[in-house]
Amino acid sequence: MAESLRDPALAQRLLLHEARAQQSLGRELRDLGDGWLLHDPADPEPFWNRLIAPRWPVPQREFERRLDEVITLFSTLGRLAHIRPLPVGSRPPDLDARLVAAGFERIGADRRMVLVDRAPCLRVAATVATAVNGRLTIDRHPDRSRSTRDSWAADAALVLGEAFDVDPLRRIALETDVLACAARRGCAVLLLREDGIPVAMARRATVGSGSYLSSIGTRPLWRGRGYGALATALAVREAIEAGSQLVHLAVDVANDRARRLYESLGFAVLGEPVADLLLR
């Protein structure tokens, strides 16, 4: 793996921008002074209720006092305490270890990646006109220039469900989520079809001068054909056209194949893996 970037200010900017990109009606982002709280009053899912980039005292006693206050805050909100440290520049530097010692569980981790070279994505995006001898089509939602098929959200949920091995019982939730994305200002879903069959997708959320990419996936039977790269490149091109100076995404720490793909498209890893730490 190429050497990662080491920029604490950029790390904080990425995590905060991701949270802003995920805000929806009713979901709030609160500045606590030493971190930010993303809170959804209607949905207890920990992903939508997390403390981002905490910067807490190093002395153990002061650290424990602040941690107790944060745990109490989550309890008052009726949510599980969920913390996401910075990929670089955490304070204290051993924040992950201290949280684990306090009873938090690592439920996952991802690498943050930022676009440092636009050229590879723009080259890949330029190939779409001749992709797969015309068998490939691209749907973009929302698309106000034409009438789109009513089933597009279900098709996107199918791609996401298979690409990320999601329980079929959660497909309706996935469908609702992509519809909510398409309804938000600055958010778009790109759905790739081969001979009309939905095969891959990517999601772009543009807020201010940055774009956060997510939900990039290909159905297993269609992998190895370059669709993931194309979906990513098209989302990057849209982000650039929307004026984004910062384009970033996250990739599961175990998904080296995806990480290498994004590196080939001009992305670089920022710092160390970011853990999801949950107190059950």
Mass-distribution shape: globular
Q: Compute the gyration radius: what is it?
A: 19 Å
CATH class of the largest domain: Alpha Beta
Q: What are the secondary-structure elements, in order, as H or E?
A: HEEEHEHEHEHHEEEHEHE
Question: If you had to describe this structure to a student in words, what would you say it looks like?
Answer:
This protein has 280 residues and is of the alpha+beta class. It has 2 domains: 103 residues, no CATH class; 158 residues, Gcn5-related N-acetyltransferase (GNAT) (Aminopeptidase, 3-Layer(aba) Sandwich), CATH 3.40.630. The chain has an 11-stranded mixed sheet, with helices on both faces. Strand 7 and strand 8 form a beta hairpin. Helix 4 crosses helix 7 and helix 5 crosses helix 6. The longest helix has 18 residues. The protein is globular. The mean pLDDT is 93.
Brief descriptors of the model:
29% strand, alpha+beta, 11 strands, 11-stranded mixed beta sheet, Aminopeptidase, single chain, 280 residues
Write the layout of secondary structure elements.
Layout: H1 8-21, E1 28-31, E2 36-39, E3 50-52, H2 60-77, E4 81-84, H3 95-101, E5 105-115, H4 119-125, E6 136-141, H5 152-163, H6 171-183, E7 187-194, E8 197-207, E9 210-218, H7 227-241, E10 246-252, H8 256-264, E11 267-279
Parallel strand pairs: 3-4, 9-10
Antiparallel strand pairs: 1-2, 2-3, 4-11, 5-10, 5-11, 6-7, 7-8, 8-9
Helix pairs in contact: 4-7, 5-6
Overview in brief:
The protein contains 8 helices and 11 strands. With 280 residues, the protein is an alpha+beta fold.
